[in-house]
Amino acid sequence: MLQSKSFVRKTKQGKVLKVVREHYLRDDIYCGASICKVCDTKVARLSSSASTILVLDTNVVLNQIDLLENPAIDDVVVLSVVLDEVKNKNLSVYNRLRALCSNTLRKFFVFSNEHHKDTYVKAMVGESPNDRNDRAIRVATNWYQRHLGGGTRVLLITNDKENKRKATDEGIFAETVETYVKSLGQPNLLDLVVHPTSEDVGMEDVEDLRPSKRKVIYIEHKPMSEITAGLHRGIYHQGKLRVNRYNPFEAYVGSESIGDEIIIQGRGNMNRAFDGDVVAVELLPKEQWHEGKSLSIADDEDEEEEDVHLVPNSADDAPRNRDTIQDSSSTVNPVSCRPSGRVVGIIKRNWQSYCGSLEPMPMPAGNGGIAHALFVSKDRRIPKIRIQTRQLGNLLDKRIIVTVDSWDCLSRYPSGHYVRTIGEIGDRDTETKVVLIENDINSRPFSTQVLACLPPLPWSVSTEDLMNPNRQDLRQLRVFSVDPPGCRDIDDALHCTALPDGNFEVGVHIADVTNFVHSGTPLDDEASQRGTSVYLVERRIDMLPKPLTEDICSLRSDVERLAFSVIWVMTPEAEIISTRYTKSVIKSSAVMSYVEAQARMDDSRLMDPLTTDLRNLNTLAKIMRQRRIDRGALTLASAEVKFQIDTETHDPLDIGMYQIREANQMIEEFMLAANVSVAEKILKHFSMCSLLRRHPSPTKEMLEPLLRTAAAIGLDLDVSSSKALADSLDRAVGDDPYFNKLIRILATRCMPQAVYFCSGDLTPPEFHHYGLASPLYTHFTSPIRRYADVIVHRLLAAALGIYKLPTIFQDRPQLTSIADNLNYRHRNAQMASWASVELHTLIFFRKRPTDTEARIVKIRANGFIVFVPKYGIEGPVYLTPKGEKGGDWVVDEEHQKVKKMDGSISYSVLQMVQIHMEVVEPQPNRPKLQLTLM
Q1: Which CATH number fits domain 224-348: 1.10.357.10, 2.40.50.690, 2.60.40.10, 3.40.190.10?
Q2: CB distance 342 to 282 below 8 Å
Q3: Residue 341 carries which DSSP code?
Q4: Cβ proximity of 158 and 59 under 8 Å
Q5: pLDDT at 166
Q6: Do 145 and 56 touch, CB atoms closer than 8 A?
Q7: Would you say 194 and 353 are in contact if contact means Cβ atoms under 8 Å apart?
Q8: Residues contacting 776, CB < 8 A, separation 6+
Q9: What are the residues whose beta carbons fall under 8 Å from the beta carbon of 672, sequence distance 6 or more?
Q10: How crowded is the C-beta side of 697, counted as CA atoms within 13 Å?
C-alpha cells in the first residue's frame, strides 16, 4: 500500500518546489510476541509467559534509560516512531536503547509502526509533530491490545499527563513510570526512577518546590533565543567550561570571541554549570577581574563551607566567594587582569553518570524507608548530588553510580538518581572499575558474535598465504622486535641488512591485523567503537580479543606471522634512496626488551649478527633523530611513572620514573619514519579520505604559563616556531641537573592534543604536525592496539591495489565521525591510565609516609603546586593550614613568587622544597595523597 507525502520547499535561488515522497505501508510486519497466533513467531523477541507487554513513549525512554537497562524491565515494545524521535533528541540514549534491542538476553522488540497499514497515522491539520507522535503511540498500543486479544495486557507507560488522559479515554491501559515500578514489588527499583517535572504526572510525590517556601540561590538561565541574540551582539561569549582540578570553585571558559580564557570564580558565578558544559558567559565589570590565574587551591573541606549566596540583581553585586584570591596590591589593575565572568545559560549539557559514594549519615526513622542523601563524586570537580534511596543501609559503604536529572535554581545541589552499585569502597578492583566507568572504557567481555569472527586455533600461516602474489615471503630476513618487558601484544618488528654497495636495507614489519579484521564485521564494529587498547597499571583492556592480540597477530619469536612491511634502502647517512610497501610473511628471530637490547648494544664483547643489526639501526636512528631536531622537532618530556607490581596480590611494591634508553629512541625513530612514509603514500592515492594525524601549533595563550615561568627565572624562550622553541629548550640548562627536564615537562603541558582527522576536512597547511615538525603524519605501526592504524592499513592496501577500498571511505561525514570517536577514545584511554597511576600511588603510599624533595611548578595565593621527580607525582602544598589566621600570603605575578606580606618568607617557581607525603582522608571515602612542607 502506497501513501504519498507532499510538501513545498524553497531553493537557494528562491524558487518554490513541490516535493512528493512515497511512504510504503504493509500488513505483514510481525508484532514480536511469542503468544501471537497470527504472526510468524520465529522472529519473536517477547517472552511467551509475558502477562504484560509494555509500550513506552519517547520521554520515558529519554528520561528513564537507567531504569530500562535493569533486567527487571522486560517484554517491551519499542515503536519505530519512538526510536526515531529518541535518535533526533539524544544520540547517547538512542545508542543505549539500540543496544537493549539487539541484546538477545533482553526482551525488547522494535515494531515498525510507521510502516504498518493499521498503525500509521497522518498528521491532522493544526496538530504539532509531538501531538501526532503521541497519537501514533496510542494507536499502536491500541492495535497491540486488539491484535493479541484479552490474554495479555498491553500497557502504555507515560509520564505525560495529557497523553495518559487521552489514552484512558480511548480505552488504553496507561500508567506512570513510578506507578508501574511500584506494582513490581521491588522497592529498590524506585531508586532508578527519575522524578517527573512539573508538566508531568505525579508531582504530588515530589518535594514542594514552591518559591514561597524556598529561597532563590542561582539566577535563572537565559532562554536560548536570548542567548543566541546576545552571542550575536557580543554581549555573551560561548565556550566549554573547564573546572580546575585543584579548586572546584574555579573554572575557565575558552572564548574565541575575545581570544582569551574567561575566569569563572565560585559556584554562584558557575551558575549550575558542570565541567564540560558548553555555556554562555557574561563578563563581569573590569574592577572584578583577577590578576592572572593566581587563584587559590581549594582545600578538600572547602565545599562543606562554601557560602551559598542569593542571586545578585546585576553583575555589580555578583557574589564574592570565600575562595577569592588576595592580590599583591590593594587595588586591581584592569590592564593586567584576566577577564572574569559568570555563566548566564547552558548551551549544551555534559551530564554523565558519576562514580562516588554517599556522604555518611544516620539511618532515618520511618518515612517508608525513603532517605534523602548526598552523593559525593570521586571527581572533586563535580558538585554533590542529592538523591532519594530506599536502600541507604546497603549503599553507605559502597562505590555507586549516580546520574544527574536536574538542577533547579532553588536548590544548592543538583538532583539525581541511583543507578547501580560498583563494589566496596577502598577495594582495588572496585576502584579500578570506577576508573574505567569514569572514563567510558568498555571492559566488557567480547560477545559471541565478535569471537565468531576469529579464525580457529591453533592458527598458522597457510600455503595460500605463502603463494599469494600480493604477499612477499620474507622469512629469510633476520627480523626482531624490541618492546617493554613482558609485552605479549607485539605488533612491530624490524630488520637491518647491510648491502654490498655500503647501503642498508631497513624494514619495519607491522602485524597484518586487517587480514583477520574485515570491514563491516561484528569484530570490526567492536574495534572501531573501542578505538584503542587501554593500559592500566596492573592490567590491559584490549581493543581486540586476546587470541588475536597475543597469538595470531603477535609477532612472536620463531613463529611465522603475517605482516605489512615498509622497506627502505638507506645510505649510511640515513638518507632514504627508495621505499617499498608489501604484505609479507616473516619469522622473528628474537623478542627483546628495551633493557636487553640496550645491554647488547653496550656490550663491546658481543659481535654476533643480531647485535650488529641493532648497532647499525641505532647509528641510523641517531642521525634521523638529529635531522628531525634540526628541522624543528620538539624533544619534550613527561612524568611517566613505572610501578613494580606483586604478581600475586597485584599491589605496588615500588614506584619510580620511567627510564628512557637509547633502545627506546631507536625503535621510536623507525616507527615515526614508517608512519610518515605511509602517510605520504595513502595521501597520494586518496587525497580526500585519508586518515591522518595532526598536532596544531600552540596558541599564545597556551604558551603563556611557560613564558611567565621562564621570564620569572630569567630564561628567554623563543616560541615563534617549533624550531625556535626546540633550540630555546636545548639552551635551558641550569645548575640543577633536573632543571632542563622540568622545563620540558612544563612545555609539554602547554601543547594542544594531537588529533586524528580526515584529509578531506582540512587544507594541506593544516595537516602539519607541530611536535614532529612534519608536514604529514599518520598512525600505521600499532594496529593491534589502535583502530586508527587498522583504517590506515586498509588505505595502504587499497593504494597498492591489493584490496578495494571499503565503501565507508566514500562517506566523508562517517569518516569524520570515526576520527572524532578515535580522538575521544584516545583521550579517555590516557585519562584512565593516569587515574590508574593515581590509584596505585595512593595504595603504595598508604602504609609508606615519605619525606622527599619536590620542585614548585605553579604558584597560587595560598600555596603552590609541586612536582616530585623521584615518583613523577604532582600535587598541591598549602601555605595556610585550614582554620589558621594571619597567613597574609600574596602573589607576585611578575616574579612568580608567593610571599608573606612582611617579606620574611617567599617561595618561587622551580624552587626545590622538602616535603612530607602521606595518605589522608579529610573527607570520608575521599582519600588523597597529602603533600606538606617540612
Answers
A1: 2.40.50.690
A2: yes
A3: E
A4: yes
A5: 93
A6: no
A7: no
A8: 676, 679, 680, 683, 692, 767, 769
A9: 628, 772
A10: 16
Residues 6+ apart with CB under 8 A from 390: 187, 188, 190, 191, 368, 369, 370, 371
Nine-digit cell at 500?
Answer: 654490498
Phi/psi at 567 (nearest 5 deg)? -125, 125
Residue 429's CB is within 10 A of a number of other CB atoms, namely 13
State the Cα–Cα distance between residues 285 and 316, nearest whole angstrom.
7
Our CA dihedral for 202, 204, 207, 211, rounded to 10 degrees, sits at 110
Q: Give the three-state DSSP class for 336.
A: helix
DSSP 3-state assignment of 579? strand
User: Is-contact 421 395, C-beta < 8 A?
Assistant: yes
Parallel/antiparallel/unpaired status of strands 290-291 and 504-511? unpaired
State the average pLDDT for the chain. 84
Instruction: State the residue for C-alpha cell 562517506.
Output: 811
Q: What angle do CA 833, 838, 842 make, to 5 degrees?
A: 145
Q: Which three cell numbers stand for residue 74?
A: 522486560
Q: Are 720 and 632 in contact (CB under 8 A)?
A: no
Residues of the chain with CATH 3.40.50.1010: 26-200
Which among 797, 766, 595, 764 has a CA at the least distance from the CA of 681?
797
Assess contact for 224 and 232: CB atoms under 8 A.
no
Q: Looking at the predicted structure, is the pLDDT value of residue 203 above 50?
A: no
CA 426 to CA 926: how far, in whole Å? Answer: 10
Cell 553510580 belongs to residue = 401
**For 310-349, what is each residue's pLDDT tens digit?**
333 333 333 333 232 223 333 344 444 678 999 999 999 9
Burial degree of 367 (CB within 10 A; 0-12, 13-18, 19+): exposed
List the grid coordinates of 122: 497522518
Question: Which amino acid is it at 73?
Answer: I
pTM for this model (two decimals): 0.83
User: What is the DSSP code (8-state) at residue 762?
Assistant: S
Q: Which of 147-151, 487-491, 843-847 has the lowest mean pLDDT?
A: 147-151
pLDDT number for residue 643: 66
Residue intervals of the chain classified under CATH 2.40.50.690 are 224-348
Architecture of the CATH domain 849-933 = Beta Barrel (2.40)
Lowest mean pLDDT among 29-43, 437-451, 464-478: 29-43
Give me the numbers of helices (H) and strands (E) for the chain, helices first please.
24, 39
Measured between alpha carbons, how far is 656 from 645 in angstroms, rounded to an integer? 12
C-alpha cell at 423: 563494589
What does the alpha-carbon distance between residue 750 and residue 696 come to, in Å, rounded to a whole number?
Answer: 12
CA–CA distance, 878 with 19 (Å, rounded to integer): 68
Domain 26-200, architecture per CATH: 3-Layer(aba) Sandwich (3.40)
Delimit the CATH 2.40.50.140 region(s) of the chain.
Answer: 849-933
Contact indicator for 419, 353 with CB cutoff of 8 Å: yes
**Whether 598 contacts 583, CB under 8 Å:** no
C-alpha to C-alpha distance for 120 and 122, rounded to whole angstroms: 7
Residue 845 one-letter amino acid = F
Average pLDDT of the residues in 594-611:
91
Residue 458: is the preceding peptide bond cis (ω within 30°)?
yes
Q: What angle do CA 391, 393, 399 make, to 5 degrees?
A: 85
- Cell (9 digits) for 444: 566488557
880, with CB counted inside 10 A (0-12, 13-18, 19+), is: middle
Are 475 and 507 spatial neighbours (Cβ–Cβ below 8 Å)? no
Enumerate the β-bridge partners of residue 388: 372
Rg (CA), the chain: 31
Other CB atoms within 10 A of residue 743 CB: 23
Task: Report the candidate in 761, 775, 618 with the shortest Cα–Cα distance to residue 691.
Answer: 761
Give the CATH fold of the 352-425 domain: OB fold (Dihydrolipoamide Acetyltransferase, E2P) (2.40.50)
